[in-house]
Write a structure and sequence with these properties.
This protein is of the alpha/beta class and 330 residues long. Helix content is 54%, strand content 9%. The model has no long low-confidence stretch (mean pLDDT 90). Bound molecules: zinc ion (ZN). Residues 50-52, 55-57, 59-60, 62-63 line the site of zinc ion.
Length: 330
């Protein structure tokens, strides 16, 4: 049984490829953080080594060892800090390439999973390219990334791509209740906040500091929205300081911002439809709110293209409308 929640299209494709013995040597699995990329990759690693007829069975020693990250032929590689920068360096890839050429020791296939593949250094990417050009027959290489545009085209073109998209909120809520035994109400709230990325919801359920971080960021956001330029630029500089090492924190913050403005837009539209006089009287048109959301999304794109983060953030701060006396929305 595949453990990954949802993504039925991807699972069906992989199931079919395994059955017909037409699995590719390398896959590029893309999707936003916490959407299920690693779980899908681990499921696939179990499936290619599983001893039973409908892999991954989740019960044989092969499946259990893969899922427990203690299978001798599985290498799960992540991003390390190197001189203050996040990177996957040449040494790690050389070592992985060396292992890849050895025969499988415990199972049928060697599987290398590289998380955050956009952080491959140029040297490392070139070493990986050699492996992709002449892959050993028993090797399965899985590259995971939230930013496929940052993957070298030469690598990209040698991988079969699988795109994972955020899950419907109801599906996340249902999985939280049935698999993680989260009470209904909390499951619904977490699912809504997760934006369809179930890994975020399960982590937030198990680790209260995640929600605390979110609340703190929201508070800073509402302060910023009410603040003048001086304060805004100070916060822009602070956020820009997160780059490039804490790219994920930066993106999470901007996602939260986009979500906050979207909520404001929805509240306004709903109020207008129902002539609800309790609508937030912030003096902003729907067009202005939409423009703010667009600016935030554009800033994220610029950051992905490695534009100077301070300039990108200052430009965003200049364009966001000022609202006096806003309250944090949940
Ligand atoms: Zn199995």
């Amino acid at each position: 049984m595949w453990r990954v929640v949802g993504h039925t299209g991807a699972v069906r494709l992989l199931d079919h490829s395994i059955e017909s013995d037409r699995l590719a040597h390398a896959y590029l699995i893309t999707g936003p953080p916490h959407v299920g990329k690693t779980t899908l990759a681990m499921d696939l690693a179990a499936a290619v080594n599983c001893e039973r007829t409908s892999p991954p069975c989740g019960e044989c020693p092969q499946c259990l060892h893969v899922w427990g990250s203690r299978h001798a032929d599985l290498q799960l590689m992540g991003v390390a800090e190197e001189e203050g920068r996040k990177a996957i360096g040449i040494d790690a890839i050389r070592e992985a390439a060396h292992q890849a050429h050895l025969n499988p020791f415990e199972g049928k296939s060697r599987v290398i999973i590289i998380e955050g593949a956009e952080h491959l250094s140029e040297e490392a990417a070139n070493a990986l390219l050699k492996l992709l050009e002449e892959p050993p027959p028993h090797l399965l290489l899985l590259l995971l990334t939230a930013s496929p545009d940052l993957i070298l085209p030469t690598i990209h073109s040698r991988c079969q791509r699988i795109d994972l998209h955020p899950l419907p909120i109801e599906q996340v809520a249902e999985a939280l209740t049935t698999r993680w035994e989260v009470p209904d109400e909390e499951a619904h709230d977490l699912a809504k906040l997760s934006n369809g990325c179930i890994g975020w919801a399960t982590e937030a359920w198990q680790d209260s500091s995640i929600m605390e971080t979110r609340d703190r960021r929201l508070e800073r956001l509402t302060d910023t929205v009410a603040a003048g330029l001086e304060e805004r630029f100070a916060y822009a500089a602070e956020l820009a300081g997160l780059m490039p090492q804490q790219r994920t924190a930066m993106h999470e913050t901007l996602n939260l911002w986009a979500e906050w403005w979207r909520d404001l837009l929805v509240a306004k539209a709903t109020a207008e439809d129902g002539n609800d006089t309790t609508s937030p009287d912030d003096g902003l048109s729907k067009g202005a709110l939409l423009a703010a959301i667009r600016e935030i999304l554009r800033t994220q794109e610029l950051l992905d293209m490695n534009i100077n983060p301070r300039l990108a953030m200052e430009s965003l701060m200049l364009s966001l409308p000022q609202i006096e006396g806003v309250a944090a929305q949940q």
